[in-house]
Amino acid sequence: MNIIENDFSWKGSLEKRTATDHIILHHRAGEGDAKSIHQGHLKNGWSGMGYHFYIRKDGSIFRGRPIDTVGAHTLGKNAVSVGICFEGNYHDYDKKMPKAQLDSGKELISYLRGLFPDAQVKRHCDFQATACPGQYFPFDEVSASSIVLLETPEEITKELSKKHFNIDDPRGFILALTKAKKENSPMYWGYYKLVNPTKNRLV
Ligand SMILES: [Zn+2]
Fold first, then answer.
1. pTM over the 0.85 mark
2. Pair (88, 123) in one structural domain
3. pLDDT number for residue 160
């Protein structure tokens, strides 16, 4: 998964988030790049883009606010949630989400579920009187079919030694696997696949 970083300047300092109970999905109710959201939200008097991620129709994923900060997207829930915005208007005219955008949404949500295993995936309208993310938004598809929890190198090592072979030096192996995971190396995905043969990729 590729997250495109931004070079936004934020107005004021962004507050750190201490809990993540929800991953909240939004639609943009329109089109345009990530920067135009940032500029629009600055104009609202906010610190800048209120979402943590923005997924365009072509599937590209942009970072908004840093993942560990409080967003500005769902009144009353910003301190305990991560906000994802999907380009398009899934209430009025976009009746089918492009596959690239859907796949990226699933991938990002899987990744976030790994980071925040206790967080529930919700729609903006679950918390506020709004149509967002819209009547045509494929919520079940984007949220339910991607439940793959990120496994730690420790868990992988345990499963591997149970299922496949004896590991003489689990500590060294865990260190190597941790490094491979950090570097997103094929070795990590290779071992992950040994443990989870039906999954092609973790996130
Ligand atoms: Zn919304």
1. no
2. yes
3. 73
